[in-house]
Amino acid sequence: MSVLVQLPVGNAVTVQASADAFLDSLGNPNTFRSYGIGVGKTAECLGGSRLLAAVTDDEVGEALESLWGTAAVGTWNARRAAVLSWLAWCRERGHDAPAVPGWAKRLAAPDSMTPVRSRMAIDRLIARREVGLREKTLWRMLYETAARAEEILGLNIEDLDFAGRRAQVKAKGARSRVRRRGQAREDFVLETVFWDAGTARLLPRLLKGRTRGPVFVTARRPGPGKVVEPRDVCPDTGAARLSYGQARALLDAHTAMGGPGTGWDLHEYRHSALTHLGEAGASLLMLMAKSRHRKPENLRRYFKPSPDAIAELTSLLAPGGTRRGGGT
């Protein structure tokens, strides 16, 4: 049975008090258990004693990303939905409450069609004058390495091999070298990603002589109340590592055509790169080596050839001498 909780009048309600009141209002015990995880952990991450009115939309998105940014799609969507309901419930009761930002959007199911962008579209986006050097470098690196966004954002300058145009990354599901608590990044088996000329031209300009710390950093130092690991802060400038949520928001801001949350997704660079390599004739084994997939069926959903590529392939079946673009 639901319990009615009286919230303070006006904007004096705290994050924790509003979360508790929302959860206490839920009559279904199954809903309470499901929403309790998402709302409870998010409230804790935001700071339970803070005034709800003082929390920004981006802080909500960052909390979701830090807690479930690398979780399964279903988990992300469920936790996001719980927080969405909590904040909407607060606003309906007259409280100034933040919203889940547009860039922290609901994710499509893994078997759905992630868009593949053409080479021209990618080149044009990166070439736009209003796009900053940091974003140009990140997007080019994501495309050329065909790596996961979390892997590239997690790179430090010390990880880069400029001469070999490669770097060691901690991959998704990385195997640990030693089973123990408090494992460091180096305790995991690392994998190698490779880039080419486009990234090689941009990286030195981005780093500007920096030799340590995160490759991609924010424009400011972390706030006084935010705890950041030493590896995630530039020792020279004090700037913090660019997070997945921030990177996603930047890409969305430059590509959204129908409002916040409608732009490109960082993962589309990986899909696009693998598709373009496949269209260019790369074998399945080479594609698996590039993507670092261990099973062909996992790679298959990344390869989505364009209609033009399918049409060109079909022309090989034409009667002798009539192949498209060929002579007799």
List the helices and strands and how they pair.
Elements: H1 15-24, H2 29-46, H3 57-68, H4 73-92, H5 119-127, H6 133-145, H7 149-153, E1 160-161, E2 166-169, E3 191-194, H8 197-207, H9 244-255, H10 268-279, H11 284-291, H12 296-300, H13 307-314
Antiparallel strand pairs: 1-2, 2-3
What does this structure look like?
With 328 residues, the chain is mostly helical. It contains 13 helices and 3 strands, in the order H-H-H-H-H-H-H-E-E-E-H-H-H-H-H-H. A 3-stranded antiparallel β-sheet has the order 1-2-3, with no helix packed on it. A hairpin with a 4-residue loop joins strand 1 (160-161) and strand 2 (166-169). The chain is globular and about 75 Å long. The N and C termini lie far apart (81 Å).
